[in-house]
């Protein structure tokens, strides 16, 4: 059974340990492949780690004219091969999540490759290892998609085009929380 990233927005404290861990991972050339986004700037301090979504049918790989992006048998979408990448940026334009980046100096695309050097040996990705709040977890795919304590999302509708991802997002409870923070009601004020 393949393992996938499970991200729980409500647990993120914005410490960016995932980014620092990613930068220090061997083979990443001090370029973080994990990003931390502010979910609603100016209204909350809520943040979320943003890794590659590891799409079941990755548009980045399909749009690559030199087949520099490989998909492993267990579904990890790898960063571009150094030998093949021509830095054309097709992958950056094709990805609906805006994940791949191009290192302009080295002329190569880079993105989260699920720390395949670690995960192929049964070890969790570096971002999972350093996250102090378990915001990022490395779970069996079926377990992540059937998370019983939280609604999850792994299918995304882009104007009628549905994209299934192996990265699974735990949806914040919008009935009682907004990105992890309690709604302020008038009777509390």
Automatic annotation (TrEMBL):
The UniProt entry, under InterPro entries, shows: 4Fe4S_Fe-S-bd (IPR017896), 4Fe4S_Fe_S_CS (IPR017900), ET_IronSulfur_Cluster-Binding (IPR050954)
- Indicate yes or no for the key word Ligase: no
Q: What residues does the 4Fe-4S ferredoxin-type domain cover?
A: 3-22, 43-74, 76-105
Assigned keywords, A-Z:
4Fe-4S, Electron transport, Iron, Iron-sulfur, Metal-binding, Repeat, Transport
Is Iron-sulfur among this UniProt entry's keywords? Answer: yes
GO MF annotation: an example: 4 iron, 4 sulfur cluster binding
Identify this protein by name: 4Fe-4S ferredoxin
Which species expresses this protein natively? Answer: Effusibacillus lacus
- Higher taxonomy: Bacteria, Bacillati, Bacillota, Bacilli, Bacillales
């Amino acid at each position: 059974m393949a393992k996938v990233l499970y991200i729980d927005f409500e647990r993120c404290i914005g410490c960016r340990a995932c980014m620092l861990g990613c930068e220090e991972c061997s083979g990443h050339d001090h370029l973080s492949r994990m990003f931390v986004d502010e979910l609603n700037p100016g209204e909350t301090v809520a943040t979320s780690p943003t890794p590659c979504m590891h799409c079941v049918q990755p548009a980045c790989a399909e749009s690559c004219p030199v087949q520099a992006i490989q998909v492993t048998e267990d579904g990890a979408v790898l960063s571009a091969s150094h030998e093949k990448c021509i830095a054309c940026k097709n992958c950056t334009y094709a990805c609906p999540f805006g994940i791949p980046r191009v290192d302009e100096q080295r002329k190569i695309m880079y993105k989260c490759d699920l720390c395949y050097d670690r995960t192929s040996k049964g070890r969790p990705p570096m971002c999972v290892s350093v996250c102090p709040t378990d915001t990022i977890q490395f779970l069996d795919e079926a377990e992540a998609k059937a998370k019983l304590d939280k609604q999850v999302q792994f299918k995304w509708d882009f104007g009628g085009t549905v994209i299934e991802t192996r990265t699974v997002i735990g949806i914040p409870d919008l009935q009682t929380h907004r990105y992890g923070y309690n709604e302020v009601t008038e009777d509390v004020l």
